[in-house]
Design brief:
Largest sheet: 4 strands, mixed
Radius of gyration: 14 Å
Number of strands: 6
Helix content: 10-25%
Distance between the termini: 37 Å
Number of helices: 1
Strand content: 25-35%
Length: 98
């Protein structure tokens, strides 16, 4: 990461519809890398807070995982453990809850 990301926020998104994007992860917030510092559930809380404070869905709707309409098809799921710096694993089906 270099100075070109100064004050930027970088989301990881999936296009669900023409004007709807699912924000399912965040990499950088205001130039600070958060992806390898915070576990997945903390990043989800951060996404929800940022969308609530700053997003106006007039042209394109950005939705967090907990706000996705019921029954909407998503191409797959990413599973994460709680260890900072580890990568998510893509699965076609919802991982079994233990």
């Amino acid at each position: 990461m270099d100075e070109r990301l100064c004050e930027d926020t970088v989301f990881r998104v999936v296009k669900l519809a023409k004007d709807m994007l699912l924000v399912y992860d965040v990499w950088v917030v205001n130039g600070s890398k958060v992806w390898d510092i915070h576990p997945f559930h903390k990043r989800q809380e951060l996404i929800g807070q940022m969308l609530e404070l700053f997003h106006q869905p007039d042209l394109t709707a950005l939705v967090s995982l907990d706000k996705v309409p019921v029954g909407l098809l998503i191409r797959g799921y990413e599973s994460y453990d709680e260890f900072p710096g580890t990568f998510g694993v893509y699965t076609e089906h919802l991982p079994a809850q233990e």
